[in-house]
Amino acid sequence: MTARAADRARYDRATAQLDAPVAIVDLDAFDANADDLVRRAGGKPIRVASKSVRCRALLERVLAREGFAGIMSFTLAESLWLARSGFDDVLLAYPSADRAGYAELAADPKLAAAVTVMVDDPAQLDLIDAARVGGGEVVRVCLELDTALKLLGGRVRIGARRSPLHSPAQVAEVARAVARRPGFQLVGIMAYEGHVAGVGDAVAGRPLRSRAVRLMQAAARRELAERRAAVVRAVREVVPDLEFVNGGGTGSVQHTAAEDAVTEIAAGSGLYVPRLFDNYTSFRGRPAALFALPVVRRPGVGVVTVLGGGYPASGAPGADRLPVPYLPEGLRYDPQEGAGEVQTPLLGPVADDLLIGDKVWFRHAKAGELCERFDTLRLVEGDAVTATVPTYRGEGHTFL
After folding, report:
1. Counting Cβ atoms within 10 Å, is residue 134 exposed (0-12), middle (13-18) or buried (19+)?
2. What residues form DSSP beta bridges with 202?
3. Which of 49, 52, 222, 337 has a CA that sits 20 to 30 A from residue 355's CA?
């Protein structure tokens, strides 16, 4: 029996009394992935990206482990909810225009102490001030650095379009704007190198593209390490007691941790290890989060149909954004239908071994987005479900 076949047998036994669709997290794999992230971080703390987990119980589990500290959130409403729930170090990774949220933040000492908001433009400070409605608490602020690699005098850009702050001078200018403004405290810098941390460099069947990605990433790492260090020096001239410099992501943990200027690493997807993280030379994780769909039809030889399945991930549309049939091995989509909203036909000789009601296990493409489809996660240890925990959706929250 292959390792994957053994996993299928375990998951089927664990969920034998549960009807599909059902989502699970294999805690042995989850914990092993957490240990690997800590190893790669080389002693620097890892701030957990909540959008890649979207389950309070699992955020609490990983933050209880040595090597993890703090949360990186994705909306202001989520940040406030987490802070009210007892998480005392929440970095909002994206600027917000949530005026009601800012009013709540500025009026509550506990929230103001726990939550740090993201800024890359003085106009965002204006919005926060206008939203205060009398709240006088100091708002903690982090500046985001644009990590994109710019070539040919800026005519070629490689990297996500996030912050407009690219140079040390630009970041220092906004740092001065924050420092001289009453009601704000600059505490950190964040720089997410998505073109390094979030792009696989070993895509099966595409050796030339994979080599090109590796060359690009090596050049991007060198350029960013030098520029990030210069940015930190420039900002520390304005705010000497800067609390943290956050960088990285699951795919670049060990590279980013090697930079002296970086004090903490961000990661989250490496806990679940969705399918987009199969194509990396820098690490190998264990798939920890999966979902099962039930076989509801057998239309013909070599074909079964499962209920649901159309769970595409965000990002540029493509086949890599779809879930992949994982267990049993040997199933594939019908190219004329793909993953369907209500039903999904699957092809392959192994389909003839599946009966009505059997489970087909899938791996999704991007980590936390699975939790927008399920209100509970079944936590599996060995061949048993040992707990059932709510996702954000199960707690009544869909923050974005």
Report:
1. exposed
2. none
3. 337
Beta-carbon contacts of 87 under 8 Å, excluding residues fewer than 6 positions away, are 59, 63, 71, 114
DSSP 50-93: GGGT--HHHHHHHHTSTTEEEEEESSHHHHHHHHHTT---EEE-
Closest by CA position to 178, among listed 130, 116, 239? 239
Cα separation, 363 vs 375, in Å, equals 17
Residue 119 CB-density burial (10 A; 0-12 exposed, 13-18 middle, 19+ buried)? buried
Query: What is d(CA 126, CA 295) in angstroms, rounded to the nearest whole number?
Result: 55
Task: Give phi and psi for 156, each to the nearest 5.
Answer: -115, 125
Taking every pair of C-alpha atoms in the chain, what is the biggest distance, in angstroms? Answer: 72
Q: How far apart are CA 167 and CA 146, in angstroms?
A: 8
Is 260 buried (19+), middle (13-18) or exposed (0-12) by CB count in 10 A? exposed
Claim: this prediction has a pTM higher than 0.85: yes
- The pLDDT > 70 percentage for the chain reads 96
Phi first, then psi, for residue 240 (nearest 5°) are -60, -30
DSSP 8-state symbol, 252: G
- Alpha-carbon distances, residue 183 vs 84, 172, 236 (angstroms): 22, 19, 20
Structure tokens belonging to residue 24: 């699970």
Q: Quick one: pLDDT at residue 207?
A: 72
- pLDDT (0 to 100) of residue 210: 66
Angle at CA of residue 53, ends 386 and 84, nearest 5°: 95
- Residue 185, SS3 per DSSP: strand
Q: Give me the residues of the chain with pLDDT under 70, please.
A: 196-203, 205, 210, 212
Amino acid at 150: K
Direct distance between the N- and C-terminal alpha carbons of the chain, in angstroms, rounded to an integer: 42
Return the SS3 of 186: strand
Nearest Cα to 181, choosing from 116, 238, 107? 238
